[in-house]
């Protein structure tokens, strides 16, 4: 067990797009687990768009990060020392343990994961909170019926790609929106969406309309902003819009002005913001559904793995600009 | 029975605020009821904001009016000739019979009303579809719990005034938003709201915040636009926003750009557009609740009655600018 570890903490609030000087990499002592605690060696870190919101001074659904805090983030790793019942050395666990090599944690913060059923990293993505977010937003709030059309923004992303696959498993037509021809091709070929439209293409609005001959019944929105505005007029009566995130707005210093809110009234649409942590009661059901789909070979995922904790800030910044394919991860220590 | 009657039809689509030349007043023959039909002499006409939406070429929840159509509108009147089972001369009925002195109607279009329990005009307002709109939006979609705060825009208006009274009957704190000190005073004194804020006052945002020390749990919105934008940051987590209308936007040639939609995500708000005609199943329950509150002396309403069908276009135009107090009605024939 080394005496010291690396840790990334929050140095400065960003204005607009974060820059590397918003982060500080430091070497600090490895914590010592007390009675009832375990020490975890973090193997892989998940960097996610919601972290950008936590960097704001206000306006987030969760407590803001204070300057000096260790960056929040989920990790998968192994127990290296346990003083807690039910945990033994070598077990694989997932938790929100932060951007650091080692973490002291309580059992309530940890979930044991089965690395014989799927790779450890899958539990940070399609089989973890990412997949559960997709399941809860789609099924609990989107409430699709077989035969309906489910549209998803950021469709090549970690959440969006799962939404489309779950929609198809449910008997729906799945249409994605993604940035660039390569991502759209991935959405269609790897994830099996019925169609995917490039929002950067000059004929986006027309192409979207063509891809939705039956209109939109569920729009699973990860981005907000102008794309949500473009989708509203394509909604069918009584459409449901689970609002999972607003990634198009996180770096915006001036929020986009939504023009088409009148369609929410005209088409009797329901827009519902949701945050996964409010719905812990649904996790077991979602988790089981995702594991079942994966075991049956019907849940595909992709990962972009950046090597080294020191590169985590760059990976995070690039992800906000859409540089990743699938789940953006950072491997903290070299693969064994 | 006269051979001819007056009728107002749709002459021209407005751009922005409607003008009187959007309407044509003509003298036409009184229709003859066929077998199974009744002839109704319309006594009082209701002019409502939703009509402005029906004047658009598109973008409404209902079929648009065509040029030459009789203006849509609900009336209360008396059966003067019946060839339909269950209807006899002299009965009072409400129906969407249009801007005209007489209408031929089928039983399915008519509701009998009890003018011994309340004045006939009440069935165009607090005891009719207006009150039912308030009840359905508040209870079916707002789902307030006793002790919560219900905020209502256009609070001195026909729907808004009922919403606040129903909220208080349900054990909620009711706060209104209205235009001008006189309307705010009416909302507090006549309708008994706990508070009412003048959106035209220079300190509106600050006054609204002060009036909502516990935040907003239900925002019953009739206006959309900048007021909705101002309310979103005051919402509590899991707030519900039944969107009943967008009167601030009906005359707008350029829609307002909503900046604060991110709060829908941050605060896990549900915005739900609704239109009364989708919810006929709830009418009996709502109607009974409203009649009970009225009989108990706990449902107040106000009316602005304009005399003469020829003045209906002006009354409609002025109502869109907020000139009315309570329900805007037009008496088609002189009071007996």
From TrEMBL, chains A, B:
Keyword check for Translocase: no
InterPro entries in the cross-refs: ADH-like_C, ADH_N_2, ER, GroES-like_sf, MDR_fam, NAD(P)-bd_dom_sf
Gene Ontology MF terms in the entry: oxidoreductase activity, acting on the CH-CH group of donors, NAD or NADP as acceptor
Keywords, comma-separated and alphabetical: Oxidoreductase
Domain Enoyl reductase (ER), first and last residues per copy: 16-330
Source organism superkingdom: Bacteria
Protein name: Zinc-binding dehydrogenase
Species in which this protein is naturally found: Xylophilus rhododendri
